[in-house]
Amino acid sequence: MDLIQTIMERRSIRAFKPDLIPREKVEEILNIAINAPSAINLQPWEFTVVMGEEKERLSRKLVKLYREKQISCSPGNVKPLADSFTRRGVASFELMNPILEQMGTDFNRFVNEGSCNFYGAPTAIIICLDNAFSSARLVDIGIVLGYITLIANNLGLGTCPIGLINAYADDMKELLNIPDNKDVVIGIALGHPDWDSPVNKFKTLRESLDNFVRWIE
Asked: What's the farthest any 2 CA atoms get from each other in the chain?
């Protein structure tokens, strides 16, 4: 598939088929993704791939933690957001919520428990960063994350970045034997999209370029 077509067609998938993905396919995705650029070629990303029954065990643990602690998905802002950001979030809610209502599903429960369950994907990729690095290296993690989502889409698979797991990082590190000096940054749900699910029918909108760019000539 053409790169630009892949970028334009990619969407976050929130319903997956249970079919397992061969380890070789995940290795192929990651082998390509680690060609992503990084500052001084540090390549600071580290991956923990959780598959099969181990992934199901992880999901059960995370859903249980969510129900106990009620830490929900949020934009992660540290001060009030500008109206433009709030408007974009509301627009996404207004696109998704009618579909969930048709499915008889509560929005907050779907997003939060769905995130903890990696939306039913058979594979979860957990991206970590050594805590020797400053937050500046999160840029590199974001780049490799983008590569993974595009490569998977190109190979006919679906993904959804999962940020909520960061709230349960300590429990995840214990469950997955992730060393103390590694920070859990973000997860990725990976699998075959269930295109029969209504929740995969919509794609969030993007605003005009004029809202994001300043030209200095």
From this structure: 56
